[in-house]
Amino acid sequence: MQPADRAISILEALAQHSFGLPLSEVADQLSIPRSATHRLLADLKDEGYVRQDYEGGAYRLTAKLVALGYSFLSTAGASAILQPIIDRLADRTGELVVLAVVDRGRLLRLIKAQGARSGLLYNPDEGPEVYLAATSNGHAYLSAVSEEQALQLVARQGFQHEGVGKNAPKTIRELFEYVDRARQTGVAKIFDVWVNGTSAMAAPILHPRTGAPIGTISIAGPTIRMTDERMNDFVEILKAACTDVAEAGFNLPIFEQSNVQS
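The structure corresponding to this sequence follows.
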C-alpha cells in the first residue's frame, strides 16, 4: 500500500469514530506499522486534517475535511439542485430521507434531511458507505443491477452478522428474496433489518438516458410509525423524487459518468 493510500485509509478510519482513535488502534485496524502510522498522522496533523488534543491522546478529524466536502457539494451543484428535492420529500413524509450515490461499485450516503419535527426521531450516526445486504438503499441498488453484478458487489463487501437488525439476511438466498421483491415493485422495503425498531424503504435513481443506477433515495423511521401501509402511501412520491434527481442532476460530477453507457 502506497503512502497516499495509507493516508486515505487513516482518514476513512477516523471518519467512523467522531471521538477519535489512539495511534495504536489506527495502526492495528489498518495493519500499518506504528512508526509509519505515526509519520502519516503527523503529516495529516501538519496539513490540518487531523488534530490531537494532547500528547498521547486520540487522533480525530478536524472540520477541514468537512469543509472540503461542503465546498465540493456546493460547486458540484448538489446543494442548490438536489438538496431541495430531498428536503421536500422529508417534509412530505415526516421521516429521515437519505440520498446515496454510486461510486465505483460502492454506495455512499451523500445528502440527508430529517422530516420528523417531534416524537420519535430516527437519525443514526452512520458511516458514508452503505451496507448493501441489510439496508433499503442497498437492496434498491442491488435490484437495479444484474444478478451477477449484485453477487459481485455483495461478495466484495461481505456479510455483517453483528450490529444489524433481527431480520437481516444471513445468506445470499435470504438477501435475494428481498432484492427480488424490490425488482418486482421498484421499491425496497425492510422492517427490523438494519436496526431493530426501525423500518425503511428505498428506490433506485436511474440515469434518464441509459437506465443505469446512479444512486438511491431512502425514507426511514421508527417501525411503530413506518408501517407497510404508510410506506405504500409514500411509493409514488419516493419514485417521483428519484426521477426528479435523475433528470435534474444526472450530469452533475457527484454522479459516476464513466460507467454509464450511452
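The longest strand covers residues 213-222.
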